[in-house]
Amino acid sequence: MTPAAIAGVAESDLGEVAPGMTPVDLMAQASRRALEECGLEPGDVDGLFAATTQLPMATLNLGEYLGIAPRYSDSTQVGGSSFIAHLQHAQAAIAAGLCDVALIAYGSTQRSVGRSSASVQEISPWEAPYRPMLPVSGYALAASRHFHEFGTTREQLAEVAVAARAWAALNPKAWSRDPLTLDDVLASPLVCDPLSVRDCCLVTDGGAAAVVTTAERAASLRTAPVRILGAGEAQSHRHISSMPDLTTTCAVESGRRAFDAAGLKPEDVDVAELYDAFTITPVVFLEDLGFCAKGEGGAFVEGGRIAPGGDFPLNTNGGGLSYCHPGMYGLLLVVEAVRQLRGECGERQVDGCEVALVHGNGGVFSSQCAALLGGPATG
Question: What are residue 207's DSSP bridge partners?
């Protein structure tokens, strides 16, 4: 396959955006910033990839807004994992000659308009009698099962939130930067047992964009290219009542496919950006992606291991728990990974970062997409 690389990335305005801003405003804002970063213009783009809960035909909105009439488009919508899937789809489209410059974009105003207005609630008729508060009820169910099977504790989940906040304190763009302790997390109000409000992601506005092209063309542009070394997708269910196993996700498959495509192993990863809509999610993904055995995720994150100064840098922008979570967060994982690989992260920069893993999650542990990205030394 023709090698592909990420040439530009950018965030839109984040947090709570100006009144009147729309999802497509944020997609376009981030897109222009990403294109400018690498020295391209909208007229150079011939492939559009986008998804958002607020725009059923997101690529049409984005193309109209930016004046782009792509010869290839992809609106794959698998929740927060969509954009890692888009990376793989863009890589394949470029290799097949369907486009030369792919623009991937996302935008959401869920904080400004309210989550109920930003996302359609799709409750299974089989689950409806139990009146689940989705998505948190599904993740709380998985967390409870993980506690029961493996002895995982609320304190271990709290370690994930505390580490995320410590990374966010080093990120000027993070929404929540105040100090957070284990006691703070444990004392915060329960949302859905065993998950408290500090176990749950932020609700922010925001967007992001990434520009993908051939590795050869990316090398001629303004910024250092980041290679897509390998990617993998998998899906297992739509509703939590159909999840084959509450403590094991299809990240087992997506991760294996990504590592096989890249010819790498978990021990080759220098920084991991894993979807953290809730504190239980990175714990499960660390297991399913092969960084530890099943059931050992809670122990893995103990003792500040995933915090700044620990030996396993995880979610170095502060994650969805403390940096930003505009509904479908996956593209912002890519932005942070690219910046880490370029050495642009200032106080939170991971020394010697050459290989990054980004892993997106969609639905309620339903869709899992992983990608290995490489810095200049992997070219």
Answer: 107
Average pLDDT over residues 53-72: 97
E-strand spans in 57-97?
Answer: 72-74
Task: Report the distance separating Cα 371 and Cα 336, nearest Å.
Answer: 13
Contact 161, 191 (CB under 8 A): no
Distance CA 227, CA 97 (A): 18
Q: How far apart, in whole angstroms, are the C-alpha atoms of residue 246 and residue 151?
A: 15
Phi, psi for 309 (deg, rounded to 5): 90, -15
pLDDT for residue 142 is more than 90: yes
Cis peptide before 172 (omega within 30 of 0): no
Distance CA 65, CA 68 (A): 8
- Return d(Cα 273, Cα 348) in angstroms, integer: 13
Q: Give 76: exposed, middle or buried? Use CB within 10 Å, 0-12, 13-18, 19+.
A: middle
Quick check: 106 and 248 in contact, CB under 8 A?
no
Over pLDDT 90: what percentage of the chain? 96
CA geometry: angle 82, 215, 104, nearest 5 deg: 25
- Report helix, strand and coil shares of the chain as percent, to nearest 5: 40, 20, 40
- Model confidence at 119, pLDDT cuts 50, 70, 90, reads confident
Both tokens assigned to 340: 């880490």
DSSP-assigned letter for residue 255: H
For helices 136-150 and 280-288, what crossing angle results, to 10°? 60
- CA distances (Å), origin 169, targets 161, 174, 206, 371: 12, 7, 19, 26
Confidence of residue 150 (pLDDT cuts 50, 70, 90): very high
Cβ contacts of 288-294, under 8 Å, gap ≥ 24: 288/248, 288/249, 288/251, 288/252, 288/255, 288/368, 289/251, 289/252, 289/255, 289/357, 289/359, 289/370, 290/255, 290/256, 290/259, 290/265, 290/266, 291/266, 294/150, 294/247, 294/248
pLDDT of residue 120: 77
User: Do residues 266 and 231 touch, judged by C-beta distance below 8 A?
Assistant: no
Q: Which residues fall within 8 angstroms of residue 74, CB to CB, at 6 or more apart?
A: 47, 48, 49, 59, 86, 89, 90, 93
Strand-strand pairing, 206-214 and 4-11: antiparallel
